[in-house]
Amino acid sequence: MLTPSSSKSQSGFTLIELVVVIIILGILAVIALPKFINLSEDAQVSTVKGTGGAFKSGLDLSRAVWAVKVGSGPVEDLPVFGSAQSGEIDFNANGWPAQHYIHGNEASPKLDNVEDCISVWQVIFQGDEPSVSNSNNADETDYKAVYSATATCTFNYRENTNLSIQYDSNLGSVTVDSDPNS
């Protein structure tokens, strides 16, 4: 006859098995954690690259309208995005968007201050997103505009100021600095 202790089989994990599983989980966590930490940074880089690409596309579209309607030289209040005043842009002598001032009287519009930078951004994006401002209220917007050099604007991403978009209105070039650690 069987005794009560011999009829029951033991079930469960031994201490060695539990330690091995804990070690394996620890190794996986050490390997996988840096990949999850970089996801936020990768998303920020993608956001700035996408915004820079959209900005460049809008500038190129504006330039195409200028080329068809004007062809050469500076022009003020050229309707680019519809017929409303909010869709008009002033172009510099090179045919690139320089500012947006409704019914200004500047013979040769130039991008020469931070307000010009903001006005071009707002006309190109035709809305509130992505938002931009100068240094006075940059904590409330996606990008902070800075007039950084002659006819050049830099739009710094608020969440990571190492990420930026630079627009040179003399050449029509857009450069995206997407190194989050620079």
Itemize the secondary structure elements and their pairings.
Blueprint: H1 4-7, H2 15-69, E1 75-79, E2 88-91, E3 97-99, H3 114-125, E4 132-133, E5 143-149, E6 152-157, E7 164-168, E8 173-177
Parallel strand pairs: 4-5
Antiparallel strand pairs: 1-2, 2-3, 5-6, 6-7, 7-8
Strand order of the largest sheet: 4-5-6-7-8
The global form is elongated
Give the N-terminus to C-terminus distance in angstroms.
79 Å
Unreliable runs: none
| Rounded mean pLDDT score | 85
Radius of gyration: 28 Å
Q: Work out the helix count.
A: 3
Counting DSSP E segments of at least 2 residues, the number of strands comes to: 8
Detailed description of the structure:
The chain has about 180 residues and is an alpha+beta fold. The protein is built from three helices and eight strands, in the order H-H-E-E-E-H-E-E-E-E-E. The strands form two sheets. The protein has a five-stranded mixed β-sheet with strand order 4-5-6-7-8, with helices on one face. It has a three-stranded antiparallel β-sheet with strand order 1-2-3. The longest helix has about 55 residues, at about 15-70. It is elongated.
